[in-house]
């Protein structure tokens, strides 16, 4: 199956940085992978225009569950789609930890993404304390079970396994540890969604860089990567894509 490689720019990027997205599109060639970039909300529309007609999709990093209303500062799934996004990252650990997002809220946001025709990328992952307590599989499969509504069956979506302790730290799990969690996620997806759960790509995220991408992407059940810091520079991101 085609790998999916998605860049998460987080709260980085001004209009001058759109050249990096253009360079990614220009450098892709006929790469047999799907590629997306999720810039801050302020750049979604301009990046969508800049990348129109290329192989690079654009996505949001979060959305509100409601379509519109008195929610100062928030952006809805419909607004992201209207700005040209086709993807949206949901349940990122920085939102779960920093904004108290629960699995139930993430599931509501997934429903919103589907309503707006966006492909959700739903993030799950354990903290270091949870891993050291031997609870990584239980935590991650619980997040999968509670964050993924039944409405996902038959719709395009992805799950991203992002161990919290590996995000932005330079630390990565071993390929055996990645394969173990991805296998547990796959089993949970099938239990929850049946056939639809057997097909959805499971991305790995957490300190992916050009030097480790090929090994991580070759691990069993790794269907792609969600990339933070190394997606900000086209040369690094293309190096990761080349490892797919
Ligand atoms: C992320 O935040 O989704 C992420 C994977 O970050 P990094 O690649 O910088 O660890």
Question: How is the topology of this model organized?
Answer:
Blueprint: E1 3-8, H1 18-27, E2 33-38, H2 41-51, E3 56-60, H3 77-82, E4 87-90, H4 93-99, H5 103-115, E5 119-124, H6 128-132, H7 136-147, E6 158-161, H8 175-193, H9 195-199, E7 202-205, H10 210-217, E8 224-227, H11 234-242
Parallel strand pairs: 1-2, 1-8, 2-3, 3-4, 4-5, 5-6, 6-7, 7-8
The protein binds phosphoenolpyruvate.
Give the structure's gist in a few sentences.
The chain has an eight-stranded parallel barrel with strand order 1-2-3-4-5-6-7-8, surrounded by seven helices.
CATH class: Alpha Beta
Radius of gyration: 17 Å
The CATH superfamily is known as Aldolase class I
Named CATH architecture = Alpha-Beta Barrel
Specify the structural class: alpha/beta
**What is the CATH topology classification name?**
TIM Barrel
Ligand identities? phosphoenolpyruvate
Please count the helical segments.
Answer: 11
Mean pLDDT figure = 97
Our estimate of the beta-strand percent is: 15-25%
Report, as a whole number of angstroms, the end-to-end distance: 11 Å
The number of distinct structural domains comes to 1
The strand order across the widest sheet is 1-2-3-4-5-6-7-8
- The total beta strand count reads 8
Contiguous low-pLDDT stretches (5 residues minimum) are none
